[in-house]
Amino acid sequence: MAGGDLAASNSEQGYYVPRNYVGSKVAPYLGQWMLMLLAWPIGALTHWMMADSAQLPWLTPGLAVMGAVLAGVAWKAGGTRSPITQTHAAVTVLIGTGWMVACAITAPWSNPLFGLWLYGGAGLAISWNIRRAMRGGGDGDSSGGLFEKVKLAGVRTKAIEVAPNKVTAALALPAGEIAVEDVQGAANKLAGALRLHKGAVRISGDPDDLSQATMTIVPNDVLRHPQAWPGPSAPGGSIVEPLVPGLYEDNEPVQLWLPGDKKTARQLTHVQVNGMNGSGKSHGAKIAWTEIATRRDVVLIVLDPSKGEQTVGFLGDNVHTVTGHKECAQFITRVPAVITEQASQLGKWGFDQWVPQAYDEHDLPFIVLWIEEASRVLEDAATLTTIAEEARSAGISVVLSQQKSSFRRMSTDIRSQLGAGWCFGVNEAADAGFCLSDEVMEAGAAPERWKNRRAGAFYLEAPGIEEDRMVMPARTFATTDADMSAAISDCRDVRAALWPRTAELLGLPTRPAGATAAPAGIRKNFTPLHSLEGMPDITDEEASTPLALPSDPESDLDGDMDTELPDDIGMDLPTGRPPRRVARDRLRRIVEKLVADGSQEITVRDLPDPETTFGRGRSWVSGELAALVRDGVLDEVGTDGKATVYRPARDHAA
């Protein structure tokens, strides 16, 4: 059912809708007048057939009984409508049949019948026109009948917006008579009246005016098949940019923000993820992990006390992972000390919450602590409560994922600290109630209708998301572990390291083994200092053993102490990987020089080899070019089929 079908339902009301504007406004009011005009010739035919009949004394009572029966049928048929509509229809039938009885006795072209037909019929037609105008706001709106069908007479539509596979209608509710919750409760009945699938109609209220609401109709279920994953949404970017795990049903990207933002008054949030076995919860987590692991100023730590490598295996050694029930339980006990240390340090630097400057200036990254099968870790409720209550001040976002967050599995103290709910298919509505708010569920969110039959379908309720999107279903992208692992590996040069003190308190290396790998061109020339972490210590015996040298090294060289040495051959000695700030300044100077030299279009191909110039890979350069766009130095103008094309911003043009 396309968006225009709401208006097209006028055909069910028994009239034709012309294509021109004036005709479309007048047509809904003509039906009653056509019936009034038709009543006179029918009355004349009745008089011609019955007036002189010997059976007239029997015919007129029969017509009267027929009128009463038809009036009863009209009353019964109008049972789903408002009482006034029910009464109006029955009275109209009685008047019409009464007119026929009168015509059987008296000619309709004589008075008073002619006057009764002319003025009485016109008055009856006008009464129906008035009802239609009042119901539709004077615009010929036919949706009033739709609401009468579900016993919500008085609700009327105002502005209607039609988009591909989506109709949005503003609703006006009779103040004090019908509440938004009443309309929300009838959403599935409205879908049935429109012959649509369950969940096709959603109602959201106006927080500023309870007499106003918005009805959203999505006729076609576009989430039946997941869309292909386009890759990480912001490789090399900051964690302040939202994670994008999938698409809403209107093909808009789902956005999940974790850090806080003072400009929008958005608080750093913890997240709970719920979904029954087979609902696609783990796949959604993997996409989110990939999003996080491709950012430059965040460290992801994944705890999985149950499944072990089955879930986290694709991460390889690129991300900190802790597996095993005992290991995860011990790790959790170390987190409160980290919270105290990082919060104290942020305060000394003048930050009341984590911001990107904490990493850019002091190398303190944002931390996402993601706990799979959280019910097995929640046994230590006191520690988890402390973490949930205090971690935000230290720049740590906690994600708790489990099948159901019932009261036996999660305390209300912990649940009250989780500002975001990511709910996949569940077995029943009560299960979703542990993850989503009552307001979102009353507005139409119903993950129980999927159960585990539509893996990856979900609702997301989180800070920064518009209210109408919280009740809009979405689905995760379709991708493979291999593709996500490759994307994570491509960004190994941009990932942050744990702050040294944090790593010490957690008992982790500052970088996982996979994150320490330098680009190929650098790796063969030197070993980064941080890659020595985790290497076995050299024993005293090994250290005291002299290296075995050739007995006659370079015996083919001739000369003695008086031999003149050759001039310096200018050999390039290997140098270390430059610090991030140095590499960033170096890139900016190169870009500014290209602009000063008159370059109108710049791609990564116009830059020197990133591995030798910046000690980083191409993905890092792409991320930094995107940062220059955000800083107003460059403008992104599209792609040339192989790479993104940038142009100098006007304020920075030569």
TrEMBL record:
SUPFAM superfamilies: P-loop containing nucleoside triphosphate hydrolases (SSF52540)
The organism's place on the tree of life at top rank: Bacteria
Record-annotated membrane-spanning stretches: 29-50, 56-75, 87-107
Keywords recorded for this protein, A-Z: Membrane, Transmembrane, Transmembrane helix
Keyword Transmembrane helix: yes
NCBIfam families: plasmid_TraB
Protein name: Sporulation protein SsgA
